[in-house]
Design brief:
The chain is α/β, with parallel strands linked by helices. The protein contains 12 helices and 8 strands. It has helices at residues 3-35, 63-73, 86-95, 100-109, 129-138, 171-178, 209-214, 227-231, 247-257, 262-269, 288-302, 306-323, and strands at 50-54, 80-84, 150-157, 163-166, 189-190, 196-200, 219-223, 274-276. Strands 1, 2, 3, 4, 5, 6, 7 and 8 form an 8-stranded mixed sheet that branches. Helix 2 packs antiparallel against helix 4 (100-109), helix 3 (86-95) runs antiparallel to helix 6 and helix 4 packs antiparallel against helix 11. It starts with a helix and ends with a helix.
Length: 324
């Protein structure tokens, strides 16, 4: 080995070391750039939770379909549906994925015979199984927690009159319970066969605004289809044969029995941010023409409220953004 060879080796080592140090420095600089906080980025604005509360009201509940149509036509889609009695029936279908057009078609074509199963019993004269099976078929077997839109059906324990809020499980069974007018429908058990018996939610909460709040709604839009009727109803109003003419009339009998509780019903309803009251008082018979009239009444009552609803959503969004 020559002296020149021995002399060059230290320089080669320094060169390698210099290259390694430069590589390390480069990696550090790159890591620092990556870890630099993006202080100028704005957090994503969280949209408020909007609940649509659909009250009980028997035949007049077809107006709920018109409300849903008007809201969606104006770009307003609720994130939560809470329904009592007929409101739970229509609300479950909507929450399960039906479009307003599909919902309207179903409302116009569903016959009483698809929903009503008469029986002889000292507990009532409608079994309620047809209603349960109808709902489960139409929601394609989905359980409530799998609905695209969060949903709650309101019922009451038969013996204690304690409010029950069903947000999971068998959709048809929950709707059956919510629609089980005392002494007319046989109260179903939840869980079936072994659970407690439940009756129509209108007994305890005809327009379930408070339940929507309890479920986390930032904005509550309540639909009261009984308001126009009840405001002029005589105190001694009684169930008549004509009110028992069809399935929807059966549901309406619970509204009649609730007139003595109207003050508490209105207090809960008025805790909503927006109250929609379709003018359905003049409608009594439920042929297809009348159903169209009720759907139109729901849309007509909703349209003047659209600006206020959109402003409320915008205001709530800003408040949520400010707290992030």
């Amino acid at each position: 080995m020559s002296d020149s060879t021995l002399y060059q080796r230290p320089h080669q080592g320094l060169s390698v070391l210099r290259t390694s140090l430069l590589a390390v420095v480069g990696l550090c600089l790159s890591a620092c750039n990556t870890l630099t906080p993006t202080s100028t980025a704005k957090p994503t604005i969280e949209a408020p939770s909007v609940a649509l509360v659909l009250g009980g009201g028997g035949a007049k509940g077809f107006a709920h379909v018109g409300v849903i149509k008007a809201l969606e036509d104006n770009g307003i889609k609720p994130t939560l549906i809470v329904g009592t009695s007929v409101g739970s029936l229509i609300g479950s279908l909507y929450a399960s994925g039906y479009t307003p057009v599909e919902l309207e078609q179903l409302a116009l074509t569903t016959t009483d015979s698809e929903l009503t199963d008469f029986t002889l019993s000292n507990q009532g004269f409608i079994e309620g199984l047809k209603l349960k099976h109808f709902v489960n078929e139409k929601v394609r077997g989905q359980v409530i927690e799998d609905f695209p839109i969060a949903f709650a059906a309101i019922a009451a324990e038969k013996h204690t009159r304690k409010k029950a809020v069903f947000t999971t499980g068998d959709a048809g069974l929950a709707v059956q319970a919510s629609c089980s007018v005392p002494n007319i429908f046989i109260a179903p058990r939840i869980p079936e066969k072994v659970g407690k018996k439940y009756i129509d939610g209108g007994v305890v909460s005809l327009v379930p605004v408070d339940s929507a709040r309890d479920l986390g709604a930032d904005i509550v839009i309540a639909v009261d289809v009984t308001s126009a009727q009840d405001s002029n109803a005589p105190e001694n109003k009684r169930i008549t044969l004509s009110s028992l003419a069809d399935f929807w009339g059966f549901l309406e009998t619970n509204v009649v029995s609730s007139t003595n509780r109207s003050s508490s019903v209105h207090r809960e309803r008025d805790r909503a941010d927006i109250v929609i009251t379709p003018n359905a008082a003049h409608v009594s018979s439920i042929d297809t023409r009348q159903r169209r009239s009720l759907i139109a009444a729901g849309a007509q009552a909703t349209t003047p409220q659209i600006t206020a609803i959109k402003q409320l959503i915008q205001d709530k969004s800003k408040r949520k953004y400010a707290t992030l």
